[in-house]
Amino acid sequence: MIRVSMREAKTGLPDLAERARAGERVVIERDGTPWVELKPYAGERRRPGGYEGQIAIPDVGVEDETIADLFEGR
Fold first, then answer.
1. What pTM was computed for the model?
2. Alpha helices, DSSP H only, in the chain?
3. Chain-centre distance of CA 57, in angstroms?
């Protein structure tokens, strides 16, 4: 485990972030007291199509062919 002060964390954040991503536990202290722990992001990435079939987009009744062509990529 690495324990660093706020000042050290401020100047060495890129290195500390790399070490945390590598699996090391990094604790940042304030006035000698553990304050925060630096961890790698572990969330899941969003998968496209998650709302497929759940959202309906109503027809707005575009009458102008030029505008309709632009919307449809023609």
1. 0.57
2. 6-21, 65-71
3. 28
Report the C-alpha gap between 37 and 35 in whole angstroms.
7
* Of the candidates 43, 42, 41, 40, the residue with the CA atom closest to the CA atom of residue 16: 40
Element (H, E) at 11: helix 6-21
57 Cβ neighbours under 8 A, 6+ residues apart: none
At 6-51, the pLDDT tens digits run 999 999 999 999 999 999 999 999 999 999 999 998 888 778 888 8
Let me know how many helices (H) and strands (E) the chain has, helices first: 2, 3
pLDDT score recorded for residue 62: 62
32: tokens are: 């000698």
Residue 32's Cβ-count burial label (10 Å; 0-12, 13-18, 19+) is exposed
**pLDDT top residue among 20 and 73:** 20
